[in-house]
Q: What sequence folds into this?
């Protein structure tokens, strides 16, 4: 339940602080957490119940430009970077979920960004997706959310209640699995080991000589 | 779905009413028209399914995905410097411009800033890729509408720009030249004089295209008033770039955003058009090429001395955090949402490409138009397949 004071660094950004105060005042209890990085960007996390009203409120606050909507799967990949040596047993990997800015409580989050034209101020809005794996659709608020929600549904398996048409965009309709989930293996890396693993050489100790590894 | 009382909707309702009267005696049947996936007018493998009533489109739906390469997944198994080789292939006509926002996002997370000289050269190459990209659009536009000459002009003059990009970066289409902390290399000898000459040629090209196409009566009658997109609709669909400015929104991320690039060091103008129709979209793009040549010309005069690469570690590890950077690319707003968990590679990258949003408006804008106008509207919205599917 923090407010704009989350930004603790010395430089202040009055424009963004002021905007964040407006947003949190308008959204009230729907805002679970917020963050302003001075001269960079704004983040808020809202409760899932208030998802659609968040969109409506932001639109009425002048955030009329719909930028993008997508999902994040916070589970660390069980396959690492896909550079395991297939002859060795799979190494143990830490599977604790570590959320990013403004925190979160669930494995999946939906993230979207809307912007104020002219001022170029944008806000990234996150929402936790619980085990029902569904959330309200933003189609009736921002028409542009339509395709983005279709893509997110197909790639993460997150449903959008009230979406007119959640067909797959890229994959065949009978495709099983959700490719952008972290536990979906990148098959190209599994059927054929990554060639990079064979020519790993010890690198010179200091990083001072050149800026670029050739 | 949306509050859209406008000319197209009215035309559609009028057509329905007329049909209802006609259909008393004559039973008509709807027809489904498939444009693509391999159709010369679709710039690649985009398929448009249109349901027609006579000559009028009742419903249309683009079907993308014939070129989906899964870059968002692939970035998760790459290191940061490797990602630029992937994102190069998103908008393949203006490749260098794709690298810039990603590199800027990584630099933002690392707290690195490229030296002034690198920022300057980045901006020059960025604008050169815009010129290469949009000049081809201007020629291609003619072909779509039945004029063959402009495309030869466009290919000829784009070649000069590609030669410049090749001279500077070594790659005509996929430079892969941008690095975290600066650029791979400095400009080659003679680049500045050569670029000045090419910019002059490109301005002549713009004048020729204006004479050949924009002043042409047939071109005007085929584009004016066709595919009108009002301001509020354009915004809520997330249209960007020239498509948005053609609807009267005076917003350019190059001017209105604070990025470590050199656009604010040149004097140039953001063009808008109040009409929002196909003609406006094409016209705004033509002006943009002209402005870009001006930006390049001015920046060439003021390239600061110094290194082109900041000091960065050999193995790049990006600290934990999240960053969003978007730039005004040839096709519109291109941005990357990068999530880092302190690794050598990104944890998640969301690629926001301009054409994905620009094309998502197609079902709305094609409603009620006539069949030949489908081509005009698609051409004027200007998309690149790699930019839709990623």
A:
């Amino acid at each position: 339940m923090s407010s704009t004071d989350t930004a603790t660094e010395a430089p202040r950004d009055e424009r963004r602080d002021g905007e964040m105060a407006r947003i949190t005042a308008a959204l009230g209890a729907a805002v679970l957490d917020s963050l302003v990085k001075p001269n960079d960007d704004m983040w808020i996390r809202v409760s899932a119940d208030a998802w659609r009203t968040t969109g409506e409120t932001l639109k009425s606050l002048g955030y009329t430009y719909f930028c993008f909507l997508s999902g994040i799967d916070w589970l660390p990949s069980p396959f690492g970077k896909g550079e395991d040596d297939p002859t060795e047993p799979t190494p143990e990997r830490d599977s604790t979920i570590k959320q990013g800015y403004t925190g979160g409580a669930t494995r999946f989050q939906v993230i979207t960004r809307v912007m104020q034209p002219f001022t170029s101020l944008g806000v990234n809005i996150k929402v936790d997706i619980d085990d029902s794996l569904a959330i309200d659709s933003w189609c009736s608020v921002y028409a542009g959310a339509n395709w983005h929600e279709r893509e997110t549904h197909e790639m993460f398996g997150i449903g959008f209640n009230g979406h007119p048409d959640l067909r797959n965009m890229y994959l065949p309709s009978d495709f099983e699995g959700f490719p952008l989930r972290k536990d979906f293996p990148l098959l190209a890396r599994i059927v054929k080991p990554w060639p990079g693993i064979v020519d790993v050489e010890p690198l010179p100790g200091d990083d001072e000589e050149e800026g670029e590894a050739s | 779905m949306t509050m859209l009382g406008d000319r197209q909707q009215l035309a559609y309702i009028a057509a329905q009413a007329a049909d209802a009267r006609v259909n008393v005696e004559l039973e008509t049947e709807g027809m489904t028209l498939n444009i693509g996936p391999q159709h010369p007018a679709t710039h690649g493998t985009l398929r448009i399914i249109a349901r027609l009533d006579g000559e009028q489109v009742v419903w249309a739906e683009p079907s993308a995905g014939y070129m989906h390469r899964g870059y968002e997944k692939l970035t998760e198994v790459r290191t940061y410097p490797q990602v630029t080789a992937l994102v190069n292939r998103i908008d393949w006509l203006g490749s260098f411009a794709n690298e810039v926002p990603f590199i800027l996002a990584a630099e933002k997370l690392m707290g690195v800033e490229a030296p002034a000289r690198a920022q300057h050269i980045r901006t020059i190459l960025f604008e050169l890729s815009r010129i290469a990209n949009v000049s081809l659009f201007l020629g291609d536009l003619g072909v779509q509408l039945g004029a063959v000459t402009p495309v030869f002009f466009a290919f000829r003059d784009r070649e000069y720009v590609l030669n410049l990009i090749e001279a500077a970066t070594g790659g005509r289409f996929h430079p892969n030249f941008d690095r975290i902390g600066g650029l791979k290399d400095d400009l080659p000898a003679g680049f500045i004089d050569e670029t000045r000459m090419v910019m002059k040629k490109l301005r002549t090209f713009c004048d020729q295209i204006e004479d050949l196409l924009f002043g042409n009566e047939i071109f005007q009658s085929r584009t004016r008033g066709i595919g009108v997109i009002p301001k509020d609709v354009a915004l809520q669909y997330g249209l960007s770039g020239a498509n948005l400015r053609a609807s009267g929104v005076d917003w350019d991320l190059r001017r209105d955003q604070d990025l470590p690039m050199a656009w604010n060091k040149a004097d140039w103008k953001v063009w808008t058009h109040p009409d929002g129709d196909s003609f406006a979209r094409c016209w705004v793009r033509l002006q943009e090429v002209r402005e870009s040549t001006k930006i390049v010309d001015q920046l060439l005069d003021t390239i600061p001395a110094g290194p082109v690469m900041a000091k960065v570690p050999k193995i790049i590890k990006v600290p934990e955090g999240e960053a969003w950077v978007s730039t005004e690319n040839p096709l519109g707003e291109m941005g990357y949402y990068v999530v880092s968990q302190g690794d050598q590679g990104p944890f998640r990258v969301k690629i926001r490409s301009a054409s994905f949003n620009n094309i998502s408006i197609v079902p709305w804008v094609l409603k009620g138009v006539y069949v030949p106008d489908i081509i005009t509207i698609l051409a004027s919205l200007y998309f690149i397949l790699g930019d839709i599917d990623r």
Notes: DSSP finds four helices and seven strands in chain A. Residues 112 and 140 of chain A are 15 Å apart (CA to CA). The mean pLDDT of chain A is 80.
